Amino acid sequence: MLLRRFILPVTRTFQHNYCSMELKRVVALLDGFASPSLAESWDNVGLLVQPYTQREIKTVLLTNDLTEKVMDEAVQEKADLILSYHPPLFRPFKRITTGWKDRIVACCLEKGIAVYSPHTAYDTLKGGVNDWLLKAFQVKAAAPLQQKDAPQPYTHQLEAHLTSDAAAAELVQRVTQEFGEKIAVLKDGKDCMKVLCREADLSSIVDLATTRLKSVKFVLTKLKKVPLSGHGAGRKASLVEPITIQEAIDAVKIHLEMHYLRVALAHGSALDSEVKSVAVCAGSGASVLGGAEDCDLWLTGEMSHHEVLDAVHKGCTVLLAEHSNTERGYLENVLKPQLQELFEGKVRVFFSQYDNDPLEII
């Protein structure tokens, strides 16, 4: 870690031959790399800060957390866009005054620096943060703990069975004129119309159908979700060969470049107990890892006291590396070269030397 801190500022002076990209092009490439639709519904991802004065993106700073030290670094390095894995804007702002997050937002707007956050889109992404975290072990048959489904343009199918084919044709015309591209109207044989729509439009469609037509029979079907293979929260896998808990600890320390981990041994286990299967979830993983009670070992950043107690009494050994330590290595070692390729070498991409987990063992 110290070696990287020493070398990084020196190597930057040799960066050259970069040009630039428009912000909208950079955002489009980032959205295409990991669609915001992969993120959890509660998350706040995508382009979070867009300065009023548009400028070309020449330099992108990668960081796990956008702290004031990282913000100062972005200004010093003349970054045009900050990709902050954790969204610095999460809850709504009622005013921008003197708080540390307020100061960061104000600085970004004043200096014309855009901010983009992927967060859980990178967690669920196939080949993303959790797949990188799982590489601490030699595994086979890895799979998400919570499968991600493809976003559906429509959630329901509504069938309207009418008294005549003419009535069905009339209803098709009226519904099409009223809702346009918000729905898909299918004429399906005699006396029937099928509508693909979202739940929010169902009552309006029914009201429209029954305004003039009294005898209408409706059949409602909720559309099934389509799973996205390999995408989802967390990962679980069987090991190629069994290892001991101590060997698992050592492997995680090497992968995360850490000297210490917090360890809670499963009830009745010892450091030489055998591990045949593992589950991982970057960040705060208790809610996701709860679906991996059949795994011998859990690896995540943080869990509460009582969540750890529940896990060890269910037979799962818990390794805690602190929240952002389970994410940072992906950004620096995997994402950085991927973005350099994604931007076709036109944009300088560098990782913050001031980003670190706020907690350390001393």
UniProtKB/TrEMBL annotation:
Sample GO molecular function, one term: metal ion binding
Keyword Metal-binding among record annotations: yes
Keyword check for Transmembrane helix: no
GO CC terms: mitochondrion
InterPro entries referenced in this protein's UniProt entry, alphabetically: DUF34/NIF3, DUF34/NIF3_animal, DUF34/NIF3_sf
SUPFAM superfamilies per record: NIF3 (NGG1p interacting factor 3)-like
Residues involved in a divalent metal cation binding: 86, 123, 323, 327
Entries under Pfam families matching the protein: DUF34_NIF3
Superkingdom in the source lineage: Eukaryota
Keywords: Metal-binding
Similarity section: Belongs to the GTP cyclohydrolase I type 2/NIF3 family.
Name of the protein described by the UniProt record: NIF3-like protein 1
Organism: Chionoecetes opilio (Atlantic snow crab)
